[in-house]
Amino acid sequence: MSTGKFPTTIGSNSPVMQPQQTFASARAKVPTRQSIALISEHGDPAAEIGKDAAGGQNVYVRQVGEALAKLGWQVDMFTRKSSPDDAAIVQHAPHCRTIRLSAGPEAYIPRDELFQYMPQFVTAFQNFQQQEGIEYPLAHTNYWMSGWVGLELQRRQNIQLIHTYHSLGAVKYLSVSDIPAIAQTRLAVEQQILEQAHCVVATSPQEQADLETLVSRNGKIDIIPCGTDVSTFRLISKTEARKQLGISAKEKVVLYVGRFDKRKGIETLVRATGELRTQLEQGEEIDPQHLKLLVVGGSDPHEADGSERRRIESIVTELDLTANTQFVGMVGHDRLALYYTAADVCVVPSHYEPFGLVAIEAMACGTPVVASDVGGLKFTVISEETGLLVPPQDVSKFAHAIGRILTDEIWARKIRKQASTRVQQNFSWAGVSIQLSDLYRRLLAQSSVSPGMGRGSSSTSTLLPKRVVKAS
Ligand code: UDP
Predict the structure, then answer these.
(1) 102, 151, 263, 367: which has the highest count of C-beta atoms within 10 A?
(2) CA 257 / ligand 1 centre spacing (Å)
(3) C-alpha angle 438/27/80, rounded to 5°?
(4) Which residue's CA lies nearest to atom 22 of ligand 1?
(5) What are the residue ranges in the chain where pLDDT is below 70?
(6) CA of 358 to the centre of ligand 1 (A)
(7) What lines the ligand 1 site, CB under 6 Å?
């Protein structure tokens, strides 16, 4: 945007701010706004959703940030600058911006190699505070490395620390075979965060139970779920959605949306589709040629994710499913609702899923969900009411569940209403943000009663990053 009225640091994707509003004028109008910091060291909230390697964390931080700004906070979202082409500051709305801090090379760095740059992130954060003349009284950190940043800040200044894990090493490492070199450090930091943050936000009852049994009994946990944009993901006409996407009424559409990552279980879905097609060949209810698997989501241009996509493609070829499968690539949130609506069933076959935004997005559009009976999915999907829960990695059970939904149209129509109502009532970003806002206010009120009293002792040193080597 080049209105000439914006400070030069503002990036081009600043859609909401009105041309006549500069930072200064926006701030001047609401002088009492409390500034807070949301920290997401990877998962840039300004990354276009559905583009780059954006996943649930980007969506969460950005949506929560914007909704909190509407509730009256000045929200500054901090992330690591990972490209020299990215603007240092991106203004999303008058009181909500992303600030990209220099910490390590301005280039893509795999997550497993990022921890060593976190001390630089802390320094850059404190320098930014000094430049702006702000000292944030509260930081909400996301993912364990940002949590480490939060613990460091807690040692250095009077700050309330709230943390959302997004993914828990203690659970993740139980379900993956390739454990990275950083694992021990991550587990130790995750424990420190739980024991020392003022509050940890678990996004589902399962996550709370995992924290208590696998991480530490000492910690303050509140359950506040993730949300979805119920004005984007809502009931729209399936006929119209299919028309726009060029999908005929005859086709039975099975949808996957998400990143190419082994723990997402795309292999299970592809194999289940193969098994289902074999079953359809033996019956007469559905023409097997009309079975369509749409895989929405992109691979990161970097090697790790790309190799998972190639692996999945080779399974599709091996099972002779090429004619039944389409790799759609990444789709922005503006068009994603069309895919959810056009689908007969959305499948979330993750081995492990801390929350799983895709499941609630699909349900908000009225699409039945077949999901692994794990993590947050156990909480969001009500089996037999909004979809079906299936044991993870069980190809035959996935095939059976998908088949049940495809062949029972009356039941699928009943699910449609129930699924969308569940999301509207429980998982809107507005509702989620009100709960977070209440939590922040409570903690800030407590801190003004006893200033400087963090849960963790200010003299406790946090684990220091060492140079880490990428796991082979
Ligand atoms: N997503 C998207 N376009 C795509 C693929 C994914 O916008 O092509 C979004 C999706 O809508 C969801 C997020 O990426 O909001 C994925 O979040 P989820 O919690 O399901 O998985 P995560 O990436 O956090 O593991």
Answers:
(1) 367
(2) 7
(3) 70
(4) 56
(5) 1-31, 49-54, 299-305, 449-462, 464, 466-472
(6) 6
(7) 49-50, 55-57, 59, 257-259, 296-298, 330-331, 333, 336, 355-358, 361
Q: Tell me how far the alpha carbon of residue 65 lies from the centroid of ligand 1, in angstroms.
A: 17
Hey, what amino acid is at 60?
Y
Q: Is 442 exposed, middle or buried (0-12, 13-18, 19+ CB in 10 A)?
A: middle
Q: What's the chain's Rg over C-alpha atoms?
A: 23
For ligand 1, the distance from its centroid to the CA atom of residue 155, given in whole angstroms, is 34
Distance between Cα 259 and ligand 1 center (Å): 7
Give the whole-angstrom CA distance, residue 403 versus residue 60: 32
Residue nearest to atom 23 of ligand 1 (CA): 55
Task: Report the CATH superfamily, name and number, of domain 8-227+429-469.
Answer: Glycogen Phosphorylase B; (3.40.50.2000)
Give the per-residue pLDDT at 48: 72
The reported pLDDT for the residue numbered 449 is 57
Other Cβ atoms closer than 10 A to 327: 17
Nearest CA to ligand 1 atom 21: 56
Which residue out of 62, 165, 166, 257 has the highest number of ligand 1 atoms within 8 Å of its CB and is therefore the one to mutate? 257
- Is residue 365 within 8 A of residue 337, CB to CB? The reply is yes
Query: In the chain, which residues fall in CATH 3.40.50.2000?
Result: 8-227+429-469, 238-426
Q: What is the pLDDT of residue 32?
A: 74
**Environment class of residue 260 by beta-carbon count within 10 Å: exposed (0-12), middle (13-18) or buried (19+)?**
buried
Index of the ligand 1 atom closest to the CA of residue 330: 8
Question: What is the CATH number that goes with domain 238-426?
Answer: 3.40.50.2000
- For residue 389, the surrounding DSSP H or E stretch is strand 387-390
Whole-model pTM over 0.85: no
Helix axes 266-282, 303-318, angle to 10 degrees: 10
